[in-house]
Amino acid sequence: MTVKQLPIPELAEACGELGVTGVGLWREPVAEYGLDATAKLVREAGLTVTTLCRGGFLTAIDPHARVQAIDDNRRAVDEAATLGTDTLVLVSGGLPPGSRDLHGARERIADALSELGPYARERGVLLAVEPLHPMYAADRCVVSTLTQALDLAERFPADEVGVCVDTYHLWWDDRAPAEVARAGAAGRLFAYQLADWTTPLPEGVLNGRGQLGDGSVDFPAWHARVAAAGYTGPVEVELFNEELWARDGREVLAETLERFRAVARAR
Amino acid sequence: MTVKQLPIPELAEACGELGVTGVGLWREPVAEYGLDATAKLVREAGLTVTTLCRGGFLTAIDPHARVQAIDDNRRAVDEAATLGTDTLVLVSGGLPPGSRDLHGARERIADALSELGPYARERGVLLAVEPLHPMYAADRCVVSTLTQALDLAERFPADEVGVCVDTYHLWWDDRAPAEVARAGAAGRLFAYQLADWTTPLPEGVLNGRGQLGDGSVDFPAWHARVAAAGYTGPVEVELFNEELWARDGREVLAETLERFRAVARAR
């Protein structure tokens, strides 16, 4: 998503040139290029698919909508397996229209996970519940803190459901460091994503994630706590940013890699 | 602030006509009309000043800036006393430019409160620390949850420092209900403010607070938990909303009063 202006073949080529060996993919561009074609292309390019984004949106009340959501998430699991990644990231969904019941919405996510967890496990895919910043609680994700995400995950086996830690969503929370340790100890730290927090936020607050180093996130501290929690998996950079998308994708990828190395070095 | 288009004399008149007996004031319009003139006007209109907004912005690192901030907060306390309100609301301040140290910023707030608390107590003014939504953590307020605000308040006597509960900032947090009870039990629930959460958020995310009933906040549930915590003080409606500000102020005040009654009745 950081360089969504690059079609998948160009992305693979640019990664190869820059020495990037893993890539997190989103379902829409994969579907556009073709699932099997994408799987073949990344395999031949020697790229590991680190995660697939995203399943989720599991908060509907309407029974037909719920069945559709579960079916769609099963397809997402299948796609992850085909792409050779072991992790599907879930953005759980916001409040259904007209509802003000956050607790009920969170319980419906748990209901759906009880169906999806075994399905995913049988296919070698872990479900990573991603807490999104509280500013998305109404319209995208009622799971707003790492505490909530872990409380949810721990209702299921650790080889089915865990969490995705994204600095953009969690940087402000003084409880997050302890919860990262909890996630690690429970064997549920499935994914680690980076974006910086910059202000002012744009209208709609979706596409203002900052380039690494431009904002308020203390990346060295985050790297240290994620490492201390035993995480040795890939580190993804996920920037939703209109300005970055308007630029040359290869240039943005090179810049992002440079920033990535700089924030890792900063301590 | 809900009807900031109304100059203070018109505000007082409109409140009188609608049977509104209390008003929360902000320092800027008070200063513009004159502190003593405002105090006289609201007294003669039979209006109670429920709170004064706002003190705070206590996170500066530079010693001169810190002294200036404390002096300014002392003036805010004096203004509150002159206006006859017993509560000054504090918006604590964001990260200083270039800093990524949330913990340090929170500690500097505590330092400042240790100076301001006794000063305010001697003048009959309570300091209400207001946690702001986490989306303001970088640029306005590093105190993002009611838990953090209470942890901070409880380092000081309960007749000096407490909290302001605002539904707009706290509605998403599953820990907030228990913390409201904690605030009540500790005698630190000093103010209660209402605004609804509506999306999409506007650019800068400051002036999109929803009219009561238009959004995701479950007001009856909030009223019930604040009442259960023993709160019997005024209930303020604080809407920062460009659309409401563009309309006739008396019409907005009447509509807000109607909505206020409707959301109180909803259960």
UniProtKB/TrEMBL annotation, chains A, B:
SUPFAM superfamilies for the chain: Xylose isomerase-like (SSF51658)
PANTHER family in alphabetical order: HYDROXYPYRUVATE ISOMERASE (PTHR12110), XYLOSE ISOMERASE (PTHR12110:SF52)
InterPro entries linked: IolE/XylAMocC-like (IPR050312), Xyl_isomerase-like_sf (IPR036237), Xyl_isomerase-like_TIM-brl (IPR013022)
GO molecular function terms noted in the UniProt entry: isomerase activity
Top-rank taxon: Bacteria
Keywords recorded for this protein, A-Z: Isomerase
Record protein name field: Sugar phosphate isomerase/epimerase
Domain Xylose isomerase-like TIM barrel: 13-255
Pfam entry (one): AP_endonuc_2
